[in-house]
Amino acid sequence: MVGKSQIKLIKSLQLKKNRIQHQLFVVEGLKTIQELLKSSFEVYKVLSTDEDFVTDHEEVSELISSADLKKISSLNTPNGYLGVFKMAKLGTIQLNDWIVAVDTVQDPGNLGTIIRLCDWFGIKNLVCSTTTVDCYNPKVIQATMGSITRVNITYLNLSEFLQASELPIYGAFMEGEKVYNSAISSKGILVMGNEANGISSEIAAFITKKISIPQFGDQTAESLNVATATAILLNEIRRA
Amino acid sequence: MVGKSQIKLIKSLQLKKNRIQHQLFVVEGLKTIQELLKSSFEVYKVLSTDEDFVTDHEEVSELISSADLKKISSLNTPNGYLGVFKMAKLGTIQLNDWIVAVDTVQDPGNLGTIIRLCDWFGIKNLVCSTTTVDCYNPKVIQATMGSITRVNITYLNLSEFLQASELPIYGAFMEGEKVYNSAISSKGILVMGNEANGISSEIAAFITKKISIPQFGDQTAESLNVATATAILLNEIRRA
């Protein structure tokens, strides 16, 4: 059975500053935990109410009571499995393919979905402004459905990164060229903006090609959600 | 100031059965309320803590205290505006363009995003299996960002609807024809399935064209989220 000090440590990981201090993050759900155990992420500990699971993974896991699990889970109804993993060392950002860059994406579900999309479309590198939600936030991990293990995510000063880049830099703007008519480069950086405000003016200054997703019918909709816009644009980039 | 019986009624609308009984639903947030006030939805009442708003809309609105608003809001931090509207009478389903059909989509955010996508891509009609989350659920309304007012949504027996239809019926399957190579019909029904299980076998029997969204890179991702898959497929249908 897991001890009190462990419970206290794991509970503290709900806050970003403690995740950074300990270089640990929490994952809930059997399926995602199994994906992480198979990945290059190093496991710290898996806690479970499932005795069979603990027996099968005795080197890395410990039994936990439902009551204790409820104390440390970020879910309303914990599902019986909580894994703690070590944060990944940053990989090198490869510049020979498309890169996705996000500027202050704040909803965990949106960032998680964008990570899952990068995985689907074979985008190896995602760069995030330091104002973007932490990718080790449990809701982000949840929404990635395991894709967190296959995308190299780097937090950096996005202005400096774009300024230093020699790749074409694409961004979606209402007044941009319709993406269907656009000759799309074989590599580049696709910048996606904040949910409410889009790409900030500071970052917009670095965009070398403004594109737009055509709208149909009465054109009454105001905008697309950032994750669905990313889906459409990555599909356009890959089908080109 | 709003009375106790009104508060009790509005609070009861958090449950679907009460929404159906009273034919009323709740919307929170100034922007969406303003969209609904401009739309064909009939207003029942808008409650607000904002005296200026109430003065400007005196025929339809009443002042509410922050404490009372907290009691009836479904948000952790209510934002000062709560509207109650009458459910729309069902429009006729038009068969001269694409229709989106959802089979047991259960996450409110996903259904709301799909409604927003229909609006963007000029899809007038969305049909939902009766096992799909209620479109008047506050989280669905929230995620539509006002698009709920511009898409005709019908709950029906999806099997019967598809069986009676003479339109081509498309569905996404891993083994389907790659959508990039596919000759896409000028009208039809696009069926999207449940988050975990995809299109049910009962519904799959009616699909006349199986399509797939190509995957890239190492092809390690397991699937796409249903809302992002809808985004990509509607974009493919409209760009065809």
UniProtKB/TrEMBL annotation, chains A, B:
Gene Ontology MF: a single term: RNA methyltransferase activity
Keywords: Methyltransferase, Transferase
Domain tRNA/rRNA methyltransferase SpoU type residue range list: 99-234
Single Gene Ontology BP annotation: RNA processing
Domain of life per record: Bacteria
All residue ranges annotated as the MRM3-like substrate binding domain in the record: 5-83
Coiled coil: none
Family named by the database record: Belongs to the class IV-like SAM-binding methyltransferase superfamily. RNA methyltransferase TrmH family.
Official protein name in the record: RNA methyltransferase, TrmH family
Species assigned in the record: Cellulophaga baltica
